[in-house]
Automatic annotation (TrEMBL):
NCBIfam families given in the database record: yjeF_cterm (TIGR00196), yjeF_nterm (TIGR00197)
PANTHER family tied to this protein: ATP-DEPENDENT (S)-NAD(P)H-HYDRATE DEHYDRATASE, ATP-DEPENDENT (S)-NAD(P)H-HYDRATE DEHYDRATASE FAMILY MEMBER
Gene responsible for this protein: nnrE
Protein name: Bifunctional NAD(P)H-hydrate repair enzyme
Keyword Transcription regulation: no
Function: Bifunctional enzyme that catalyzes the epimerization of the S- and R-forms of NAD(P)HX and the dehydration of the S-form of NAD(P)HX at the expense of ADP, which is converted to AMP. This allows the repair of both epimers of NAD(P)HX, a damaged form of NAD(P)H that is a result of enzymatic or heat-dependent hydration.
SUPFAM superfamilies xrefs: Ribokinase-like, YjeF N-terminal domain-like
PROSITE patterns linked to this entry: YJEF_C_2, YJEF_C_3, YJEF_N
Organism: Dokdonia genika
Keyword DNA damage appears in the UniProt entry: no
Length: 546
């Protein structure tokens, strides 16, 4: 199912030039991901500007969710169970339940009475429901009050929202378990109950497993992190009419990078061009038994649009590269060993990547130390080059500003240290990138690019990328974009996006298990072509009735 997403945009100006092409400025459009504090402030600003009671916003939010559901259900008699907490998220759910009941839907409403503190607007929503419909909510105070939930039901989860800051009581967690075990289609309002917006989960925490999350104004950062995102099957955003000026002018620390943002960065080509206008990529790497990594990265740089590509490898790799990739030039060190003993090339490159398949032999380490001392332009640093730096932290002082590091989780941990949860990982990574003035690409299900305390979350990719060599392909794609004159941040974001999109296209032919790294490279061109195709829209069907 494909869902439309609502976007709010802002301009962010970056400048960068290199020898390939002079570029003045860029203004990518970015989808903001607001913090819970910012969303509460947006509520406040909206109420003040419009001169309305806060309850009106609850009515507005609940009304939009009802319209969203009604558009998809069209009056079908599917059993709907609405679970409401006693805060504002529960109030939203009460508004939804009232509107569903008034329009003839088969609804049972339950108040999860977890403490004595009810929000004022929740109480207003409760009174409105009791005044307008005959079917009043049932009160749940413990396990003994749990209703039966079947797989044919739709569950509306409005128990806890973004204000959750402590672990729910055991019986409430037991309700979460019951909802999860029911296998019912579960629609969570704003955020799955039990999930926090700004911290990870503890060992005993339980979260509602959401079939779909309808998130107000923007998705939440937790949706994209491994330990929390796994509880969400799909999500969409819904515009509930918060103040557009506040949303447009308020900076955020997190942005979502998807098709509209990449379209803004993408540069087309005129008819009268030649290979020299699109940069020269140099891929440094390889060792005995690991020449495939350089081959993958080099071919990916070509597929990404680099006008020229040279691979710099130990001499043992020359026959392999010359045979496998006739389009790629090859340079070598002056030794006949199986690993690098020096890095001294003649290629005048616009972008350099180092690390794929390089190994961590002491001779290679010494060669890399010498290489870093001579570099001024941003590099793409991957794999064993990252491992070498992690073992010798002082080398970070030699890494040029705006270099792009692309670690997998293990390599990242060696760089920044152990973390408590994914939020802590992001904080440690952001501080490391800030301190060293570099860009870090945190590879994962939702790859996150980090620079200057900002997070840029990618939206493409699938589990088929969990196979050997796809990281080498990513290195090549990023390098190819950097060589063409894209700003390092653009090169990183576009590289990550197209890498994932190519996998999304390729998986339709090879399947998740059958996808290999070379397939991603082969579908890079198709991924770029799809950048300007219009997606098809599909409806959402109610669960089948038995």
């Amino acid at each position: 199912m494909i869902e439309h997403r609502s976007y709010h945009y802002f301009d962010n100006t970056l400048t960068y030039t290199n020898d390939c092409e002079q570029r003045s400025s860029l203004t990518p459009i970015l989808m903001k991901i607001f913090s819970s504090k910012q969303l509460y402030e947006a509520d406040k600003v909206t109420i003040e500007k419009e001169g309305i009671p806060s309850y009106n916003l609850m009515e507005r939010a609940g009304g939009y969710v009802y319209e969203w559901m009604h558009k998809r259900l069209q009056g079908q008699p599917v059993p709907i169970k609405v679970f409401c907490g006693i805060g504002n998220n529960g109030g939203d759910a009460l508004v939804i339940a009232r509107l569903l009941l008034k329009n003839g839907y088969n609804v049972d409403t339950y108040i999860v009475d977890c403490n004595d503190k009810r929000s004022t607007d929740f109480l207003k929503a409760y009174e409105a429901l009791k005044n307008e419909v005959k079917k009043w909510p049932e009160i749940i105070k413990g396990v003994e009050n749990f209703p039966e939930i079947s797989p044919q039901d739709i569950v509306v989860d409005g128990i806890f929202g973004i204000g959750l800051n402590r672990c729910p009581e055991d019986w409430v967690k037991a309700l979460f378990v019951k909802i999860n075990e029911s296998k019912a289609y579960t629609l969570s309002i704003d955020i799955p109950s039990g999930m926090y917006t700004d911290r990870g989960l503890e060992k005993d925490d339980i979260v509602v497993h959401s079939t779909f999350v309808l998130s107000f104004m923007s998705p939440k950062l937790a949706f994209f992190l491994p330990e929390t995102g796994k509880y969400i099957n799909m999500w969409d955003t819904i515009d509930i009419g918060l103040d557009p000026e506040y949303l447009a002018t308020t900076p955020t620390d997190v942005q979502l990078i998807s098709k509209p943002e990449i379209q803004q960065m993408y540069k087309g080509r005129s008819q009268y061009t030649h290979k020299g206008m699109f940069g020269h990529s140099l891929i440094i790497g390889g060792s005995f038994g690991k020449m495939g990594a350089v081959q993958l990265a080099s071919k990916a740089a070509l597929r990404a649009g680099s006008g020229l590509v040279t691979a710099y490898v130990p001499q043992i790799g020359v026959p392999i590269l010359q045979t496998a990739l006739p389009e790629v030039m090859v340079e070598t060190d002056n030794f006949n060993g199986k690993v690098f003993e020096e890095i001294d090339f003649q290629t005048e490159a616009n972008a350099i990547a180092i690390g794929p398949g390089m190994g961590t032999d002491e001779k290679t380490v010494a060669a890399m130390e010498s290489f870093l001392k001579s570099q001024k332009a941003p590099l793409v640093i991957d794999a064993d080059a990252i491992n070498i730096i992690a073992k010798r932290p002082a080398l970070m002082k030699q890494v040029p500003a705006l270099s792009i590091l692309t670690p997998h989780p293990g390599e990242l941990e060696r760089l920044v240290g152990k973390w408590d949860d994914n939020f802590d990982k992001l904080e440690k990574t952001a501080k490391f990138a800030k301190n060293h003035n570099v860009i870090i690409v945190i590879k994962g299900a939702h790859t996150i690019t980090v620079y200057d305390m900002q997070l840029y979350i990618n939206t493409t990719g699938n589990p088929g990328l969990s196979t050997a060599g796809t990281g080498d392909v990513l290195t090549g794609v990023i390098t190819g974009h950097l060589a063409q004159g894209y700003h390092p941040m653009e090169a990183a974001m576009m590289g990550v996006y197209f890498h994932g999109l190519a996998a999304d296209v390729a998986v339709n032919q090879y399947g998740i298990e059958g996808l290999i790294a070379g397939d991603v490279t082969e579908f890079l061109g198709r991924a770029v072509m799809s950048l300007f195709e219009k997606p098809e829209q599909e409806g959402i069907q109610a669960p089948p009735q038995q």
